[in-house]
Structures are given as structure tokens and as C-alpha cells.
Fold each of these.
Amino acid sequence: MKKIILFVFVILLISSTGFAQTNGLLGRVYDSTNVKPIVFATVSIIRKSDSMLVKHARTNQQGRFSISGLKADTFILLIAHNNYIDFVDEIILTEKDAVKDLGDYNMIQRGQVLREVIIKNTAGIKIKGDTLEYLADSFKVRQGAMVEDLLKVLPGIQVNKKGEITAQGEKVEKVLVDGEEFFGDDPTVATQNIQSKVVEKVQVFDKKSDQAAFTGFDDGQEEKTINLKLKDNMNKGQFGKVELGAGLDDRWQNQAMVNSFKNKRQMSLYGLMSSNGKTGLGWEDKNKYTGDGGNMMMDDDGGFMWNFYDSGDDGGNFGNGIPEGLTKAWVGGVHYADKWNENKEHLNTNYSFGRINRTKNENSKTENLFPGRNYQSLDNSNSFSSRNTHRLTGKYDFAIDSSLTIIYNMSGRLAFIDGSNFSKTQNTTYNEVPISSRMTNKSDQSVTSNINNQATINKKLKKTGRTISFNASFNYNNNHADGTIEGENGYVVAGTSVQEMIDQKKKDDFVANVLSSDLTYTEPLSKKVLLKLSYGITSDNSHSSKTAKVKPTGSIDYSDRVDSLSSDFSSDIFSQTAGLEFKYNEKKYNVTLGSKARYSMFKQMDLVRNRRYDYNRVNLFPTLRFNYKFDQFRRFTFSYSGSTKQPNISQIQPVQDNSNPLNIIIGNPNLKMGYNQNININYFSYKVLSSRSLYAGIMFTNSFNNIATNRTLDEFGRTINTYVNLNGGYNASLWGGINTKIPKTPIDGKMNVSGSFAHTPTIINNLEGNSNSFSITLTPGLSYSKEDKMYLSLDLGTIYTNTQNNLQTSRDITFFSFAPSASMNFYLPKNIEIGTDADYLYNPPVGPYATSFDRFIWNGYIAYKMLKSKTLEWRASMNDILNQNKGYERSTTANYNTERNFQTLSRYWMIGMVWNFNTGPLATSQKGMGGHPKGGPSRRGGMRMHR
Amino acid sequence: MKKIRLLLILQFIVATCIAQQTKEVPSITFRGKLTFERKINMHKQMDEMMKGSSGNSAMADNFKKQIPKYKTDVFEMFFTDKESLYKPAPDGISESKMMMGNVPAERNIVYNNYETMTCVAEKKLFEKTYLVSDSIKQYQWKVTEEFRKIAGFNCRRAETIIMDSVYVIAFYTDAILAEGGPESFNGLPGMILGIVMPRLNVSYFATKMDNYLPLEKEIAAPIKGEKVTYLSLNTKLRDSMKQWGNFLQRILWYVSI
């Protein structure tokens, strides 16, 4: 009997252990600085879905921990120790992992130094996987401060005068609000218009591209991103900012933002009108005179391509920090985002409108260097442009289940551009003997529309790492421009001077339809090797016509077409691209090696001359990428990419372009295939607690059999262009910098270096030569900030420029220029704030530049905050107090030395007010205790972890 | 005179420097003595107790005027990494004058053994003393991202719901190895230094920590009282206090924590 009982008992025991499907975790916790195990750190396993603490343990003398009895689920692993910064990671436990070994975790010491100087409350900073998180309330800012002020006091983050943000030594490309893209890519919309007190956490991470995140193949497109996680109770009421400012001489800047957030729904309105160059929403206009049609260019595959100045992005041109021309802007936008269906469906839309009017005067002097035939050009132009642009973007994604996602992206843009430009050009010899002159008065009206649609289906298959992704897109571009040109050309041909009057009407049309789709498949070949196969087809269909018409003698109608200035091309490019890539994954490093091959079929028609060009091209694009991650904040990347370059049809057998009888193109059928390669090496290291960052990088590009233009000037003053293969050209650039706290002082120091070297073989008048240009910029800087009291910074920029040309030794140019800048902000008692900043630029006279140039721009403001929570601010500011602002730019290349002066906004003053409002619960009370009666907050919504 | 003043200032500076140095929180504490302060909002407590009973509210308001809003009691807790004893400090329980305002089970003694995972608790309820012998109470904690400094320790906030309806906020530190807390609260990765139960109008917060090796008798389990388990005590009270109505629920809560 006893035996039977025992038997039954044993059976029960075995079966019970057999049935209990429990899993375990193992790991080790290390001190990152002196590589010793951390004893008695707590390891908490928290269920991700409801933040419930499931199990916990302490590490033993060897720093090891083991936890058993877990069921398959997604967990948050929290490792904490009094002396270290909390570490958070996400762990997915499947039923197959009996005991999952998590490997080693490195913890970062809260550090002795730190406790004294930087952070009073180290609990305010946390590392979650690859995300660095700051708890906003742990950092002290003034009442009424904006997010930008908060970012300035966070260790490891810097904000410069223009509002550009650097985090851990890298430029921040995007600022998200509660994980949502907020009015496109202009970070300052969020940082300058949202108050810091509505923010709960600031999270800094590297955002991977959607495809890289899905397939696990890095494409090197990581963007440093900041997410502003707002406080939970911002879900009620409205908050925002109203700013008004005006001064004499037609100077004004008014803007407003209203946000209404409710649960996952975000709704925001933004509007701005200004006459001081501020355009907001990334509307900074392209400085180039647009409105004009396009230029015919050749693309990588050697086909036709029409390239418009108005290429769709309205990105800024602040090359040397000075906006060009005088701008008035009226800008508005709406942002809407929502999640529903248990967050499976997500929509983000932004609409914006901008009207940007700009007037600009500029003049330039250019030295053109041709062996034996140097001459100079003087240009003078006045232009006006008015752009009215509508933009709409939308993204919808739907996670049908955990393995299948559909993403739809659209963007549309409609722009109406009116422009006029009056310019005068005078080409003379050095002794001011005229060679040719031109005077034109142009005006254009154009309408551009772009529509992009893209749909992606991502499917994860059963086996981990096996994925399939299908992507289809359709792009439509249309540009229509009407314009007139009036003017006068004068030049000397074979000793006689010729005058030519110009009076033309122009019409440009361009339509392109690009349809493409591709399929990507990834397959894990082993635990460490991943394979990616891709295949795509693209059909690019475009048509471009340009007509120029003149009045026949005695007529008032523009009825005669000028054949030499008219063209009509159509182009069909059908290409197939296949790619094969391998990725080898180790814990600390990964290597990606692969190549793409593209087969393109070109069918191109010159409809005016009724000629047809059909040809096929094959090009290869090999890549190699190596990433080494020492730890979370130290990494090394090496990447190599190459591409073959087939000579294009116009280089072998040119399309006759008679638009300029003084410019003749002769083809070269003996051209060889070229090959370009690019090597990029980057090192980055960041020490969280001493907030020291170090970065360095080198980029090297060279080409074999590069196709260059041989330009000859014949005795008739004609330029004859032909194409040849030239070897030996390369380009190298390097950059590096260190930002650190200077030990034993409260001062931050930095030293940035950037340099470039280019060796360019040239061929002019059949004479082979080469030019070298070298420039290096050294910027040491110091900054000091006392929370809540003052902020000081000083940068000393020095630039060394050297250019040499072995055919023109007299024009070897070497000079130093200086560009120091300083800024100061003081927060005085009685809610008064004053600030001032100054920029200086000095360029010495050298070579072609007869005079030195210097400029000292000094700005200042005083502000007074009032109301109980300091939400109302009065502000008086003066820009360019000394009235010295002048637009100036030098550019030095192998064949040209140009000095350009342009109009820009100089001294003005403004008086105004800023009001931050908040009708939500935060307006009256700050976060208190015990505010969550039921269930408790589960605040992990905005968390992002990738390891 | 001036010299003396200077000396005093110097002395003060030196003293604060030393104080600051010694204030440094040790990385991990294995044993010691914690002092807790319990605060009960008596006015709210009275409101709750009057709810549903026939007593008139004017009388309750009158009572409220005569008693201070908060009743503060002091508890102490001796602990090692293996066991802990939580009990009222000597003279720690302040007198409350009002019979109606009295707090049931206000002097609980709880002994937890973290090796055997058992507990022994003495619960005084009116005239009766029970000795609960059971396994350590299990809680389902939710861990949050909030922090608060308590008695010099950085504490993380966690939450749970007990007895289906009482919301509990706890603050714990991983710098103390024992996994206990005031009353019978436990089960977080470290020592609980703060408990807030809005529903019971009560909060417990540690006020100081002494690094101290408890004597064996200071950490001994209680022995007096009628032997019960949590379950049997609960049934017992339900049976004997049926007519107490709304009041009973509160008593059960106080006894069970």
C-alpha cells in the first residue's frame, strides 16, 4: 500500500514538473568602468502589458542573477542599485527559451564627481536600452520656461542660438511629441512653443528607418531623435503660446500655437507672420531664384533627368548664418494625430500653408580662370519672389496582428511661385576691356505639384528573422511655368562687337510619373547570419518641353518659335534592381556585405528633331558596412559603397543643344566605364555622467575613369566641350570634436575640428593640370551655465583656406579668417532676464579679393515675466545694434573665385509680449500624491527600447 | 568677541562638512532599525465611520472640532536580511480621546521571516488579542517610474490593490536588502519606506534609519494571543460582527494589513 502511495506521489511529482511550462532568465551585471561584478543589485521582472512586478532577485557575489518560474510574455527588466543609474531593457520570452541567458549588463556609476557638480538628483536620468531618459521635473528651470530652456540644462544636451539641438555630441534631427511627428522636421516648433512644465520626460534615442527597424538590416540612416513625453494630465484642456512683437520700419513677428490633446489624440494649430526672416515650420525658402524651368541633367544611370531648382524641399539657405534678402512670411499649419482600436491603428497628418515674399539685391565679382585666358565677371541683380505653398502629409499604419503591418504614406505639395529678376553681367579682361555684357529682365509664374503615395506591407513569418516586405509607390510631379525675358546681349566675335536684343516669351512644362515597387525578403541562415534578397522594378516616365517665342518683325504677337531655345524631350526608363546582402551579427559587432545590380532600359525621344535614343545600361552598387559597439555609448562604424558609372548617351553621342552657338559639344565614343567609391569611418563615444562626448570621422571619395569635360576655347571665342576619362581625383574630409566638463570647474569646454581636402585633375584647352584645395576650421569654445542664473558661451572659430592650381600658380590663395562669437543670458531677480550675443567675421584681403571684409553683429534683449506662474513675458529686443550686418560670401574653386555681397536685414528693434496659456489641470496644481484612484498609472506608453 | 564669533562660524562650517560626509547613504544596508511615523486623518476617518450609520452629522462635526486633524503614531522595525519585526515604539501610540474616533487594530506587531517565508502577527482588536500565524502575504505590485526621497533614501513608487478595493501606494528602496515594510507589506525588491492608503486615510513614512545590529530578543516573533490564520480570523470577525455593517469592512481592512 505504502509503495502504491509513493508511486502515485512520484508520478504526480513528475507530471506536475512536466506540465509547469516555466521559463527562466540568467544574466550578469557589471560595473562599466572597472569591470567588476555588481553585488546585490536588484533585478526586477515587470510584465510589460500591465507593469506588474512578476519576480525579482538580487545579484550574487559574482554579479549573477537567475530567475525562474516565468511564463512566456514580454517583460521589462529593471536593474537597480543605489550607486548606479537604473538600467531598463525589454525582454521577450517565448516558450522555447527554457532558460534564456541575457548575457552581461553594464551599469554606469552615479559617480562621485557627478554628485557634486552636475546632477543633484541622479534619479532624474535613466538609461533604457538605447534610450537616455530625463525626468523633466528633476531639473530646475525658471517658471514659465519653454522646452528649449529645459533642454539647455539637461546634461549632454546643448542648444545653440539658432535653436539647433545637439545631444550626446550629435545633431538632433527630429523632435517628437508623445512619439508623434510634430509639424514635420523643424524641431524648434516644439521646443520654442511648448512649455517645459507640461513635459514629463525627455527621451533621447537613435531612430532607425522603418525598414531597418523591421528587417534588422542597418541602412545607416539613424537619426538622433528627442521625444517629449507630456504629463498624463495634459490630456485635458488646451495649452499653447501667443507671441506678438512689432517695431518701426515695418518690422513684426507674431505667432501662436494652440494644442488640444486628449488621450492619444493630438490636435495643434500653428500660425506665424513675420517680416524679420523667421519663417518657422521649416519654410525657410531656398535662396536661389526659382520660378524658372529646369536644367537638363544626367542621373547616376546615365539617363536624362530634369532637375528643378524648385526640387520640392523648401529647406533653408543659411550657408554662413545670414539669411539672404528681406523676407515677409505668413505661415500656418494644422497637426492631427490619433491612435485607436487598441492602438493598432495610427494616423498622423499635417497640413501647412506658407506665403513667403522675398526681395533681394546682390552683386558679385567672379574671376574665371582659364589658362591664358582669364577674365572677370561683374554681376548685379535685383529679384523678387512670392511663393505660396500648400503641403499635406499623412501617415496611416495598421498593425493587423503582431506579425502583419500595413503602412500608408502620402505627401502632396502644391506651390504657386511668382518671380521677377533683373540682372546685369559684365565680362571684362583684367584691364577692364569689355568682352561681353548681358542685361536681362525676367519674370515667371509657375505652378508645381508633387504627389507621393507609398504603401508598405510588412509581414513577420514564423521563424524569427524571416520577414517579407512589399513596397509600392507612385510619384507624380508636374511643373508649368510661363515667363518673359527682355534684355540685351553684347559680345565681341572675331573682332567685331555684336549687339543683340532679346524679347522672348517662354513656356516650360514638365510631367513625370514614377511607379515603383519592390519586394524584400530576409532569411536567417544561422543564428548569426542573416540574408536579405530584394528585387524591385521602376518605371519612370517623363516629358519635358520648353518653348521660347519671339515677335516677328512688325508684329505684336509672340508667334515665332526659336528652335535653338526650344526643346521637347520624352523619356521612358524602365529599370530592374536586384540585391543580395548578408549580415553577420555578433553581440558587439555586425558586418553587412552585399551588392545591388541595376539593369535599365532607356527610351528617349527628342521630339523637336525627331530622334530616338534607345539604349540599355547595367550598373553595380556594392556596399560593405561594419559596426562595432563597444557599449551603449561608444561605437565605431566603417562603411564602403561603390558604384559603376556608365558614360551617358550625350557624352558619347550628344543630343544637339543649339541654345548657345558659342558652346559646342562633341561626343567621345571611346569613353570607358567609371567607378566611384566612398569610404566613411566614424567613431563616437559619450560618457553620460561626465557628459563628455568625443566624435571623429573621415570620409574619402575617389573615382576611377572619372568622366570630365575638356573645355577648349577656339580662336573664334567658342567654347568646345568634349568628354574624357580622367584619373587620380579624390576628396577627403574629416571632422572631430570633444565636448567635456572641464574638471574642477563648472565650465563646459569644446573643441571642434573640421577639414576637407580635394585633389581635382582638370583639363582645359587640352592641358592637363590639377588643383588642390584645403581648408580646416578649428572651433574651441567654452560655456558656463548656472541653473536659473546665467548662461555664458564663447566660441573662437578660425578657418584656414588654401587653394592651388598648378596651371595658375599666380592664383594660389592662402588665408586665415576668424569667426568668433559670444553670448550671455542673465536671469536677474524680479523676473527680469537680459541677454546679448555677438558674432564677428574677418576675412583678409588676398589674391583676387582686393579688400578685407569684417562685420560685427551684436544683438540684445531684455524681458520681464509677470503673472503668478510667470506665463506672461514682455520683451524688447534689438538686432544688429551697431548696424553692421552685411551679406558676404567668398567661394574659391579651381576655376572660379567669387566674392558676393547680398542684401540682408540689418538693424531693427521690436517690442512685444509672449503669453503661455494652459487651461488644463496643470494650470492650477502640480503633480501630487495619490492622484490615481483606480488601477494606478501605467506610464510606459511612450517608452522605446531597442537593444 | 570677534574671534569667538569667527571660531563659531568656522566650527559650524567644519561641522556641516563632517555632517555632509557622514550623511552619505551607504550603498547597501543589511541590518538596522527603522523608525516609521503613521499619520491618520481623523476627521476623514470619522466621516467614513459615520457613513451609513444613523449617527447625526452635527454630532460628528462637533467631535471633529475637539480632536486634532491628524493622529501621529510612531513604530519601529528591527531587521536583518533574514527577518524583521515591526511594532509600536515604546510610547509610540498616542492617546485618542474619542471612543468613536478610535482606530481599530492600531498596534499591530508583525514578524516576517524571509527564509521560511512565514509571518507571525499580533493583532489587538478591542479586548481581544489574536496571534496570526501564516505564510508571508503576497502582493501584486505594479512598479512605476516615480521617485521620492524618504529618510535619505531614493525610493521608487509601486502600487497595488489589496482586498479587492483598497488602493495602496508604496515607496521602496533597493538600498536595503530586507524585503519588508510597515505592517505586513512586503514583496518589493527592497525595503518599503513609505505606504499611503487613501481609502483608509492613513500614511506610513520612515523618518530615520539606524545602522544597528538588532539583539535576538528585539527581533523575536510575538507569542501572545489566540492562534489563528488570516483566513480564520477573517471568518471569525465576519461572524461575530455582522451587525457592525459599514464599520466591519474598515475593521477588516485594518486587521488585514
Amino acid sequence: MAQFAASAGDAFAPMYEEMKLQGAAGLRTAAWETFAAKGLPNRRVESWHYTDLKAALARPAPLAIARGGVEVARTHDSIRLVVLDGAFRPELSDLAALPPGATVQPLREALAQGTPGIMALLASDDVRTDDATLSLNTALMQDGVILRIADGVAIQRPIEVAGIQSSEEARSSFTRSLVVMGKGARATIIETAGVLTDVPSQDNQALIIRLAPGATLDLFTHATGQCETQTRVMSLVAHLDESASLSAFSLIEGAGLLRRQIFVRVDGEHASLALQGATLTRGRDHADVTLVVDHAMPNGQSRERFRNILDGSSAGVFQGKIIVRPGAQKTDGVMQSKAVLLSDGATMNNKPELEIFADDVQCGHGATCGRLDKDQLFYLMARGVPRGEAETLLIEGFANEAFEGLGNEALRGFISARVSQWMSGRAA
Amino acid sequence: MTMLEIRNLHVSVGDREILKGLTLTVKPGEVAAIMGPNGTGKSTLSYVISGREGYEITEGEVLLDGENILDLEPHERAAKGVFLAFQYPVEIPGVATMIFLKAAMNAQRRARGEEELATPDFMKRVKDAAAKLGVSQEMLKRPLNSGFSGGEKKRMDILQMALLQPRIGILDETDSGLDIDALRVVSEGVNSLRAPDRAFLVITHYQRLLDYIKPDTVHVMAQGIIQRSGGPELALELEKHGYQDYLSEEAA
């Protein structure tokens, strides 16, 4: 174990030494020590049983550095905040378009200045620190945005946090963004994670969300990649106060190894949570969605609905754990994971878990994994739709199920188009 | 002149032979009812004509307009004019009804070498057909058959038949799960599609449906073959005496 920790330390230690000079040294040091004691997770760590990150990151790439002259195409009608190669880029961002009541501060600046409220948020115990990759993110966080939306402010136009790597050689980025929404505030946020080049990039990004009482946030996360040698760990940590509502949707287009982990703590009564998404993998992609929803207060509602579409020899993982603490009576939770395998070589691992310590709750889970439904396929073909087109309709429909409840029409259209495009790239 | 001709059809599922040499002829414009007890292969017949997987055809032919269709894929048969109204239409959550309808109509048109429908033309056709069948705009906005009642699913199937204008419509136990009002709407939909160049095969266990969709011919099916054929009076006779005459070994 000591040797193992030492090797992880060896690889990331120079980055830690460098980042410690960028502010928040105390926070970084504590996180670094936590990480160094554990090392990168391998399959012996229960919550990482299906994903061997240690093997994937056997050779950590050097830290990404900001470069000029990079063009990042727009994909959404949004107020965009660009975090490029590990650095927030105000000159590429639509800061002037931010409506009153919304403010943005670069994380780097907050860390350097030790902005008091922010430091408290970053250090708070509901930011899970027992996950080694989050600890590593805390120790090495380079930059990101801190977005605050004031009490009662409702913002129609989506705000996009675009996390992009453009490095032409393998680089690591560690980014962290915070979204802090005031009482009754409403917003739609798009989180994009992409790579512009086909080098073996390594990204570790975290999004921390705090919803004050009555705040409502719709989040859409879109992850893409360029090649099978890329590695991405993306964490969402959310904290919901009384009557807050978070609907987090994700479309993951697999590329290499991807781990999306979601940690939500429901810390106020009558909070409502929807975690939904579709993951598309092919070739040798490996995509892992792991979530932990912790209901600490009564009358909470949570819906988890995930879809995997797997082709080639790709692998999918869904691990979902719902915890209902002793006082969290009347919690209503439904977790569902469904996978469709398009090839013989694809594998899906489903691991739903319920840990219920209250007696008056309604919680259920279901997981399925199989081929396309033959009755559905026959129904479409009996109406004249050729087999290939019928399969595409079914698969797109299967993916679309994961986005039920997403109110933003433009985003729904965007998602449908991406799934169609993915399907059209399917090897015949 | 015949439209659909089934000649000496033998069909097995696994080791069990279900259709044992069935022969049946349907003329253009004809409404032929097939009546028979449960478990006698009526649904198998409808699936074999429309091309569902899982049935082994060991002997015989199914000719549509003189062409054997048994080697065709289901969508190819559909383009040639075979339409199966399902006993239990399938729910397909996630697939929008309108997208499905357009895909089906245009696929059939392409297969026949016709131009695809322009969107306004398509919308108008759906709207007109939906109004006749009492299919609401709200139903059309939902995913295909998702959360529909039994009656709504049947109406959606008949709507598809109205849009696709098949040569032969096969109604597989269309009355099952329908209350009287839904049965009337569905039957009126079918009756309005009766035409000299279109035939129907109405598969049913009960006489009741035939009060609404009046057949020209009635065929009694039992033990995997057509046991007896006649006019509408045969259905009334069956209603009175049941199927026991056809279930003994001598009858077969």
C-alpha cells in the first residue's frame, strides 16, 4: 500500500508543488494528503470496481497550459464561459451578456485572494472528500468559474460552462467550477466537456452546485471526446436546501475512458431531484456513471433514469446508490437503468443499491440490459420501416427517454441530433 | 381474380405444428372473417402473412396479387400492401408518433418508387384521418402508443391503416379489450376504408365484431386449417352452437 501511494505521489507530486503556490495552500495540502494515502483508484476500491483508473492513468500527462489562437466553435445559443486548457478565458467568454443578478469570478482569482465565502464552500464537508479523484481535483485545481445567481433572479438564456482541451500533446487538466444559486433563483446551465485534438488527454473536472431554498436549476452536461486513449473524470457535487429543485441531464458520447460521478445531498425538506442521462459507447470505450444520492431530510423526491447504448466491444457501468437517513421519512425515490447492447462484444454492468434507514419511504430501482425489443422492431417494420431505419428509430427513442422532463426545446433538439449523428456513424 | 391466396400452409413453432395445410382465398373488395376457438393458430396466421420472425414455414405459399411474399421482409410486405392491425399494439416510449408515421409513410413510398410526402401534405393527411377516428392532437404528440388505453391503441392502429392505404388489412382480434363505444369507432374506421381494390381479413373469436364489420365470407378455423367456409349466416350459427363441432378428431 505504501509503495502504491508513493507511485501516485511521484507522478502527481510536481503538479501539487506547482499548484500549491497558486493559493489555497492549506486546502490543497489536506486534499493532497488524503489523495496520497489512497492513490488513484483501482478495481479493489469498491466504488471503482468496474473502472480501473489507475491503469488508465499509469502515465499522468503534464499540466495543461493556456494557448492562444484557439477557436472554440459554438454549439448552443448560450451565455458562454470558456475554460480552455485548464484556464478560464474571459476574452473568449460572454461576460458582457450576463444579466443583472449573475456574477462570475475566476476560480484562480478566488483561490489566490482567498475569497472567504468561496474558501468556506470549497472546504465544506459536503464536498465529498473520500473519493480520491475529487481529492486530487482539490489538490490540483487550476481554474474554473464561480457563478453566483442572486436571490429571486430568474435567467432564461442558458449559461454554458464550456470545458475544453485543445493541447496538441497529451496534457492533464484539473478544473473546478462552482454554481451558487440564491433563494428562489432559476437558471439553466450547460456544462460541456470536450477535446479538440486526438491526443491522449487527461481531464479531471468538478462542478459544485449549491441550491438555496426554493432555487431551481436545470443542468445539461455534454461530454465528447476524440479518441480511445482519452481519459476523463467528471464529478458533480450538489447540495439541495429546502424546496430546491435540481434536474441534471447528461449526454455522454464515450471516447476512451470516462467516469461521471454524481454526489447529491438532499439537506432540506421537499427538495426535488432528477438525475437522468444517456451514454453512447462504441469501439473500446468505457463509460462509468456512478451516483450517490443522500437523503438527509424528509419529503424529498428523487428520480434517476439512465440509458446506455453500447456497440462494438465497449463497456458501460451504472452504479447508483440511494441513501435514506433515519429522519428522511416520506422520501420518494425511483432509480432506473436500462441498457441496449447492439453487439455481442459489448458489456454492461448495473449495480443499483438502496440503503434505507427510515421506515416510511417509497424507494425502488430497476435495471435491465438486453437487445432491441423484437416486438417493437416488428411493429415498425410491419408498417414499412426498413430494419436499419427501424433500429435507429428505436435506439434514438430509447435515448430520448432519458431526457423526458427536460424543458428546453433547443437542448432536446440538440440531443436528438447528436444521437442521430452517433447512430449514423455506426459501423454497418 | 384473387388478391390473397394461401395455399397448403404448414407452419411450426419449435417442434409444434400450428398451421397444418391451411388454404384460403380472398378476392379484392372482400371482407373475409376467420373465426375459431382460442389457440387454433389464428394469430399465427396473421403473423406469418405479415412476416414476423420465429415461425418456420415448412410447406405452402402466401400469394399477394399472384406473388409469393413469404421470402420478403416485413417492411417489404408492408410496401406491397400488407397491413396488420395488432391484437395488442406495442408501446414504443421515446419514439414520437408523428416521426414514426412520417417514417412509415415515406419508407413505403420510397419502396414503391414514389416521391416522399412534403411536410404540409403529410400533416394534412394525418389531421384529416385523425379527426375521423377521434384521435386527438394530444395523442399525436405523445410517444407512440405510450400510456394509451386499449381503445386509443386500436384507434392509432386504424389511423395508420387509413394513412398507409394497404391492399389487405388483417385485423387480429381487433375487438379484444374494446368497450362498445371504442368498438364502434374502430369499426366505422375500418368500414370507411372498404374499397373495391382492398380486402380485409377479420380474425375474431366472437360474432360481436361482425355486427359492426359485416363480412362477405366467414371461415371457421380450427386445428390449424380452415374447417368450413360460408356466408355471414355461418357466423350466427357459430354464435349459437359454439366451436365444439370442429374440435373433435373426426372434424379434423
